[in-house]
Amino acid sequence: MVLRACLVEEPRVIAYYLGGVNLVGFLAALMCCAYLAWGEAGEGNGVVDVVLGLLAVCGGALGIALAFLGFYLAANRATMLTRVIVACSLVIDAVVALAVSGHVRAVWNWNVVGFFGAHEWLLWVLGAVNVVVFLAFAIDKRAAIRGSARVKIVTLLGLSFFGGSVGALLGMHVFHHKARKNYFYIGVPLMLVMQLVVLWFAMSLL
């Protein structure tokens, strides 16, 4: 592939770029962490989400993640969307790195039915996770109406991240729940894209 050939010929350029963008991401995340820690972040800050989100998509997700892990570990609503974008970007970056380094077939495999037919257990696992996520949205919606104990946001997003994005999308639309929170209406579709990228990689492994 052309991309793989370019990376092989100019590895230092790619290394300098990734090092630079992750350093910028780390420093930007540190400044955002300081702002969020000293200010009143509320539900979230659009500037923080846009700046760190763009840096994550451009390859700086690792630097941002390290800053959060070191200086702003506690998850809250102010950084929830940013954390979702960074987590998805890290997974996609890892897949891209493995793909361009030669860990996929020259001819990509698009036979989804055949793949799941050969790995039926994976289909059952994904089905179970999505059912659990869908039911979690139903339980949380009912709890919100009754004013009882809620399902944690981190739990809903975590289940969605680890294979349950379809169930989360269905739960959001069927129960009209969490559909106005940006870390759900942006984050869950992004998780679905990430999971499709991982599925493609799994289908195209050498």
Query: Ends: how far apart?
Result: 15 Å
Q: Rg from C-alpha positions?
A: 19 Å
Classify the secondary structure makeup into a structural class.
mainly alpha
- Tell me the quaternary state: single chain
Q: Largest sheet, if any?
A: none
Q: Low-confidence spans: pLDDT under 50, at least 5 residues?
A: none
* Total number of distinct structural domains: 2
Beta-strand residue percentage = under 5%
The number of strands is 0
Helix content: over 70%
**Total of helices:** 9
What is the H-and-E element order? HHHHHHHHH
Shape, please?
A: flat
Mean pLDDT: 86
Compose a concise summary of this entry.
The chain is mostly helical and 206 residues long.
Can you walk through the features of this model?
With 206 residues, the protein is mainly alpha-helical. The chain folds into 2 domains: 1-103, no CATH class; 108-206, no CATH class. The chain has 9 helices and no strands. Helix 3 crosses helix 4 (80-100), helix 4 (80-100) runs parallel beside helix 9 (187-203) and helix 7 (153-174) crosses helix 9. The two termini are 15 Å apart. 30% of the residues are buried.
